[in-house]
Amino acid sequence: MGRARHRADQTLKRIGLLGGSFNPAHGGHRRISLFVLDALGLDEVWWLVSPGNPLKPKAGMAPLAARIASAVRQAKGARIRPTAIERELGTRYTVDTLAKLTRRYPKHRFVWLMGSDNLAQFHRWKDWRSIARAMPIAVIARPGYDGAACASPARAWLGRYRRSAAMLSHRTGWSAPALIELRFDPDPRSATAIRRADPDWAARFAGKVLRDPLTHHPVGSDIP
To answer: Is 194 in a helix, a strand, or coil?
Structure first.
């Protein structure tokens, strides 16, 4: 029984999940994803381009189609799949998205990826402990947020489940809750700065229709 399970674990794809608005996607997202692919020995990283983040204001949010298009451009040539699957799943909160993803892809192992800025407010997310129990969480350090992240209620709770990155390199070593903390050279790029410098960036993607790289369903310019 143990050997059969070991063989089954060897065939499971290991996927990192990076959620966000990607408003727009930029080189910083790509650089972090490439780093995590290598650090955790992942097969792919999926960018979950959110239809709407409950913790972010709607003002200034570009249409989903434009954000997906920017993500597809940034992911080109890498083991990264941008997807608008949350719209298809009909989920708004991460805990619901992850529950549906794990049921839909039973032959995948997932790890949730977040920056230390998100760990600092993770306790505000709906059913955040359920997220932690669903899959390992890898936190990538971000400049200026380490102190807030370390002092957060979520970090205090997750601290007892700290694991090394090497744990995920072994296909049989996945368990949850698990907190993997990764150090990453600071990347100054941000979507906020890009929008300030180029407020009309989304207009370049207007009218384009593409297929979701994960679901292969059309993502058109009519999507709000």
So the answer is: helix
What residues have CB less than 8 Å from 204, skipping those under 6 apart? none
146-155 pLDDT per residue, tens: 677 788 999 9
| Average pLDDT of the residues of the chain | 87
Report pLDDT for 224. Answer: 38
pTM above 0.70, yes or no: yes
| Strand, coil or helix: 76 | coil
Nearest-angstrom CA–CA distance, 182 and 18: 14
Question: Token pair 């180029």 is at which residue?
Answer: 198
User: Can you tell me the distance from the alpha carbon of 66 to that of 222, in angstroms, rounded to the nearest whole number?
Assistant: 10
Using the Cα atoms of residue 213, residue 215, residue 220 and residue 224 in order, give the sign of their dihedral: negative
Task: Give first-to-last CA distance, the chain, whole Å.
Answer: 49
Closest C-alpha among 42, 18, 38, 15 to residue 28:
18
Q: Which of 21, 53, 49, 15 is nearest to 33 (CA)?
A: 15
Confirm if 36 and 138 have CB atoms less than 8 A apart.
yes
- Tell me the C-alpha distance between 77 and 213, whole Å: 13
Q: Is the dihedral of CA 168, 49, 218, 66 positive or negative?
A: negative
Question: Residue 73 has which token pair?
Answer: 């451009």
| pLDDT confidence of residue 210 | 87
Residue with tokens 């230390």: 116
* pLDDT given for residue 144 in this prediction: 65
